[in-house]
Design goal:
The complex is a heterodimer of chains A (about 375) and B (about 350).
Chain A (H helix, E strand, L loop, with lengths): L1 E5 H12 L13 E7 L2 E7 L3 E8 L1 E4 L1 E6 H10 L4 E7 L4 E6 L2 E6 L18 E4 H11 L14 E7 L2 E7 L3 E8 L10 E6 H10 L7 E6 L3 E5 L3 E6 L18 E6 H15 L6 E5 L4 E7 L3 E7 L1 E5 L2 E5 L1 H10 L4 E6 L6 E5 L5 E5 L2 E3 L1
Antiparallel strand pairs in A: 1-5, 1-7, 2-3, 2-6, 3-4, 4-17, 7-8, 8-9, 10-15, 11-12, 11-14, 12-13, 13-26, 15-16, 16-17, 18-22, 18-24, 19-20, 19-23, 20-21, 24-25, 25-26
Helix pairs in contact in A: 1-2, 3-4, 5-6
Chain B lengths: L3 E6 L2 H9 L8 E4 L8 E4 L1 H4 L9 H7 L4 E3 L3 H16 L5 E5 L2 E5 L5 H16 L3 E6 L2 H10 L5 E3 L2 H7 L13 H9 L5 H7 L1 H8 L2 H9 L15 E12 L2 H21 L3 E11 L4 E12 L2 H13 L9 E12 L4 E3 L5
Parallel strand pairs in B: 2-4, 7-8
Antiparallel strand pairs in B: 1-6, 1-7, 2-3, 5-6, 9-12, 10-11, 10-12
Helix pairs in contact in B: 4-5, 10-11, 12-13
Classes of the chains: A alpha+beta (about 375), B alpha+beta (about 350).
Chain lengths: ~375, ~350
């Protein structure tokens, strides 16, 4: 194989796929990136068998072929190449690549492409498409709530449901639930629904790849064991988490006896200040709600006390509830709306927050009680 | 030397409630379960005690004895805070403090004069918390506690050797440390009602009934108590382990032992009114290599089944060394949740 590519394109492609390179030393070949030259483009692939990322970059391919090169060396070297273009020539007899630019020449030893695992492809295009920034926001608004507790592996992922022309994304670590729903602008005809659990890491890698604009779309296809995300010149395939994701929304109260309407930003900032003092104690703040005022108080014996009043309109019963301010801040940041509806049904049950004017986002958080 | 102090807050929970709510002051207040529930009284204010209401009594009965009593649900977080405040005040007088509960502690103030310090302590507590304490001062823990009990509420009582000799003989045996209902019954059956009766009976007749405790009780009856004030070492972990007589390697045997330990630790946790968040399994092999593995639960527990499940899970993930036999297996719990501690609730997933 022999090709010439722009340093910028090649470096972009390599860094895009490098996140899927295995960090474990189980299979040496998985520490490499598969490069396939074909027509006027290069196809770069990396996988750790959990996720795989494939990226297409343009190049002038003089001789078709393929090779696997160690990701660590290749990515770093290409990134530092001072020239605009780089020529790569592969000797297929000993799996060695020579990189040339200006008067420099680097030789890198690689692996046989034959041993590289075959990256599965979607058997059929399900036709589910979303603007990339929409999926990116959905992930930002939910993925922070996935669990990091390996004793319940299923909760280390987020549940994605494609149903009734909507895409639903939900994550919980047992203490809070973040849920976001969006309409699929292009959804296939007929009755079709699928529910899958995407590993937390897939979400963060995917979010990194998604563009922040709504011109580019991402196609989503699913098989019983894998999910495929097609971003145009980049594709990501992920293994799914196995098992039944619990029906968590069932555990959220349906009626609320106290509700607050207030500025998400103000509540966020007050929580942030309070957490500066509260973090050295139990970390809890007390939200005091009565018709006259909403207060945030906290006390850490060695440090001091917090008292803040927050402007809010209050409906329903007075209430005092203990909450972790960091969990509140997470939800408030994900809300994407300044007017917040915050509802409670007592101080020992989950409370719910959502934008005042929308139903597409929901954040549920459990209180701190005195044992 | 009179340098042991016992400090006991007066009707602590009720007093905190009365302090914080002027409407409750001067009125019979009962902190505890609702009178229409199966709950019990945790603390009654002195106004309620006049009607015969006392702690551990069913709330329903308290309502019958004192229909005008105001029932208040306990606010443990607040009591905990006040208790810490009081402990800080005590810390200004001595670093040898042995707390017995939220509202009671011993202080060893030697070589200072206990009477002087006791008075200053009472005053500091009153000034800084608005609450009253009863303080007993003596030369050992038993007599200091007896003293604080003697003159409640808001009392300061000193028992020196002369006062002890005067007071002790007429004391009901019930007042001696460690004499509960059962021991009291035993002693009554021998015709022993007072400390004087006890001393007259002598060790030889007591031993068959009380066993090894007879000598200890007679010492107390003479006002002798050698137990030092033991500063609090908060329990950080509790565990159970056994070295096998015969080396064990079979997994089902190990699981059986862990099941037993889970029951034992659960009972100990309940006794201490604690829950644990971290569970550790320990194995030692016949080559003396020790292997431990821990996990932290989402929810603190005192449930034997949850402890067992955690132990089983840990054992499964431990890669038990099949080459060697297991000589020792242990189960340990730590990272405790105590009453009054804040606890993050979680979904039953």
């Amino acid at each position: 194989m022999k090709f010439t590519a722009s340093q910028a394109d090649l470096s972009y492609g390599l860094q895009t796929v490098a996140k899927a390179v295995s960090t474990k030393n189980t299979l040496p070949i998985l520490s490499g990136i598969l490069i396939k030259g074909d027509g006027n483009r290069l196809n770069l692939t990396a996988t750790d068998l959990e996720i795989g990322i494939e990226c297409m970059v343009s190049a002038q391919v003089a001789e078709e072929g393929s090779i696997v090169l160690p990701a660590r060396y290749l990515t770093e070297i290409v990134r530092k190449i001072p020239a605009a273009a780089v020529e790569v020539e592969v000797d297929p007899r000993n799996y060695t690549a020579v990189l040339r630019w200006d008067r420099s020449q680097y030789t890198i030893h690689g692996f046989s492409p034959e041993q590289f695992p075959f990256l599965p492809r979607a058997t059929q295009d399900s036709g589910n498409k979303l603007p990339q920034n929409v999926l990116r926001n959905m992930i930002r608004q939910t993925a922070f709530a996935v669990s990091h507790d390996e004793t319940r592996p299923i909760l280390t992922g987020a549940q994605m449901t494609l149903r009734d022309g909507h895409c639903h994304l939900l994550a919980t670590d047992g203490v809070r639930i973040a849920y976001r729903r969006t309409a699929l602008p292009e959804s296939p005809q007929g009755e079709q629904s699928s529910s899958l659990v995407l590993p937390g890491r897939t979400l963060s890698e995917l979010s990194r790849l998604l563009a922040a604009n709504d011109e580019d779309t991402v196609g989503i296809s699913v098989t019983p064991t894998q999910a495929f995300f097609d971003l145009g010149d980049v594709r990501l395939v992920s293994r799914l988490l196995e098992g039944q994701y619990p029906d968590v929304l069932r555990l959220v109260p349906q009626s609320y006896s106290t509700s607050l309407t207030l500025s998400a930003q103000q509540l966020h900032d007050a929580c942030e200040r309070a957490s500066l003092i509260a973090r050295d104690g139990s970390g809890a703040i007390k939200l005091g709600i009565d018709p006259e005022r909403v207060t945030i108080t906290s006390s850490t014996p060695e440090v001091g006390q917090v008292y803040e009043e927050v402007a809010a309109s209050v409906q329903g019963d007075p209430l005092e509830i203990g909450l972790n301010p960091r969990f509140l801040m997470d939800g408030l940041k994900a809300l994407d709306s300044d007017q917040l509806l915050f509802e409670f049904s007592g101080n020992r049950t989950p409370s719910r927050m959502k934008p005042q004017d929308r139903d597409d986002f929901l954040y549920v958080v459990l209180p701190i009680v005195v044992w | 030397m009179l340098s042991i102090i016992h400090c006991d807050m007066d009707a602590f929970f009720a007093a905190v409630e009365q302090r914080d709510d002027p409407d409750l002051r001067g009125k019979p207040v009962v902190v505890g379960g609702r009178p229409d529930s199966r709950g019990v009284v945790s603390t009654a204010s002195y106004e309620a005690r006049r009607f015969g209401v006392h702690s551990a009594m069913p709330s329903r009965q308290a309502r019958r004895l004192c229909p005008e009593a105001i029932f208040v649900r306990p606010h443990f977080d607040k009591y905990h805070q006040v208790s810490e405040e009081i402990r800080r005040i005590m810390g200004q007088f001595s670093d040898r403090i042995e707390p017995l509960s939220l509202d009671e502690a011993f202080l060893d103030v030697s070589p200072q004069d206990g009477v002087h310090i006791g008075r200053a302590l009472k005053e500091a507590i009153r000034r800084q918390t608005g609450l009253t304490a009863s303080v007993g001062v003596s030369y050992n823990k038993f007599l200091a506690k007896l003293a604080s009990d003697w003159n409640k509420p808001d009392g300061l009582m000193v028992i020196d050797e002369y006062r002890a000799a005067e007071l002790l003989p007429g004391l009901p045996v019930r007042k001696l440390w460690g004499v509960g209902e059962r021991t009291e019954e035993l002693l009554e059956s021998l015709g022993i009602h007072t400390v004087a009766d006890l001393l007259a009976t002598g060790e030889r007749r007591l031993e068959p009934v009380l066993g090894g405790r007879a000598g200890e009780l007679l010492l107390l009856a003479r006002g002798v108590d050698y137990r030092p004030v033991q500063p609090e070492h908060e329990t950080k972990s509790i565990g159970a382990e056994t070295t096998f007589d015969v080396d064990q390697a079979r997994l089902d045997t190990l699981l059986e032992v862990i099941r037993e330990y889970a029951d034992d630790l659960s009972a100990r946790l309940r006794l201490e009114r604690m829950k644990a968040r971290t569970v550790t399994v320990k194995l030692r092999y016949d080559n003396f290599r020790t292997q431990t593995r821990s996990l932290t639960l989402t929810d603190a527990t005192d449930d034997p089944l949850a402890l067992y499940a955690a132990g089983e899970d840990l054992l499964a993930r431990m890669e038990v060394d099949a080459e060697h036999r297991v000589r020792l297996v242990g189960l340990q719990v730590a990272n405790f949740l105590r009453p009054g501690d804040p606890m993050q609730m979680s979904l039953p997933l």
